[in-house]
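Structure tokens please, single chain.
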Amino acid sequence: MRAPARRVLAAALALLALSGCDSTFGQKSGATKQSRGISDLWRGSMLAAIVVGAIVVSLIIWCVLRYRHRPRDGVPSQRQYNVPLEITYTAIPIIIVLVLFAFSWTVQNDVDALSSNPDVTVEVRGFQWQWQFHYRNDDVTVTGLPDRTPVMVLPVGETVRFVLTSRDVIHSFYVPDFLFKRDVIPGVKNQFDVTVEKPGLFRGYCAEFCGLDHARMTFAVRGVSKADYRAWIARRQAGP
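Here you go.
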């Protein structure tokens, strides 16, 4: 194959590979305030991985082409080591790891931060094989049944405190659109805050295998306006 044809083929293959990529690298943008940092961390980590991978592959290709054996070549250099080069390729990965660790530490602290005065507190209880949501401030309880998926209604723009408990085995509270998952452990109260930023219906799952009907242990989260949330609470308080 001639050189121009090879270049065209290589460009076509590169475009085909890039057509499957987007700026999110397959990660959801997130529906909560806390998920923004998680999404940014994911994209930054992926960009760093792409840059490092491109450099490594380029260096491998360059070494293969530049130092391939030729009939006229004699004995190659017998240098045992190159101290500056070894220091460089040891220091750069350490710096990359430290930078990613610092960003991860910052995002984790932001996600785990608890408000001193949350607007809504929801006690989430996992049990085989459903969920129960108790709104502590308003004494409203939503319990899932085998044939009825429970729906958790949350006000958009307000801080919601979740308190997770389990009465039997380990479960896991997972909402993909929140970019968040936390285990629900017997005898342990896990707490976290979220602020839903946009209305919508978000699916939730138990992400820890917990027995026979684990796959049916699902729920939904509905983000609504503050007025619609108060109206929903009033309806729940008025009757079952």
